[in-house]
């Protein structure tokens, strides 16, 4: 899974790239339709959502885990974008 993510305080939601979802065999479910405006002002819509558990730390008892939902988008500069809903 991703070793790095883009923290984006300008995004209200979390996003995963479609390429990442397909590469790792993740199965999206349908959520509410959302419209995302990218840094280049391109607008994309999606209702595909993937649940993830993020783990920070070396693992074991000291690790911090967060369950999040990410909307799946076709065109992202990073595999994972963490927005305000995570921050």
Please give a structural write-up:
There is one protein chain. This protein has 87 residues and is mostly beta strands. The chain has one domain: Acid Proteases (Cathepsin D, subunit A, domain 1), CATH 2.40.70. 7% of the residues lie in helices and 47% in strands. The chain contains one helix and six strands, in the order E-E-H-E-E-E-E. The protein has a six-stranded mixed beta sheet with strand order 1-6-2-5-4-3. A hairpin with a 5-residue loop joins strand 3 and strand 4.
Reported for the largest beta sheet, the result is: 6 strands, mixed
Counted up, domains total 1
State the oligomer. single chain
Please tally the β strands and state the result: 6
Number of helices: 1
Give the CATH H-level superfamily: Acid Proteases
Radius of gyration from CA coordinates? 13 Å
Q: What integer is the average pLDDT?
A: 90
CATH class: Mainly Beta
Architecture, CATH level 2? Beta Barrel
Distance between the termini: 19 Å
CATH topology heading: Cathepsin D, subunit A, domain 1
Can you describe this structure in just a few lines?
The chain has 87 residues and is mostly beta strands.
What is the strand and helix layout of this fold?
Layout: E1 6-7, E2 15-17, H1 18-23, E3 29-37, E4 43-56, E5 64-73, E6 80-82
Parallel strand pairs: 1-6, 2-5
Antiparallel strand pairs: 2-6, 3-4, 4-5
């Amino acid at each position: 899974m991703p070793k790095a993510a883009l923290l984006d305080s300008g995004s209200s939601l979390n996003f995963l790239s479609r390429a990442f979802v397909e590469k790792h065999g993740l199965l999206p479910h349908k959520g509410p339709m959302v419209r995302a405006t990218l840094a280049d002002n391109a607008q994309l819509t999606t209702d595909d959502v993937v649940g993830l558990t993020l783990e920070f730390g070396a693992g074991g008892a000291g690790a911090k885990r967060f369950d999040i939902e990410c909307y799946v988008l076709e065109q992202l500069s990073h595999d994972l974008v963490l927005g305000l809903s995570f921050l």
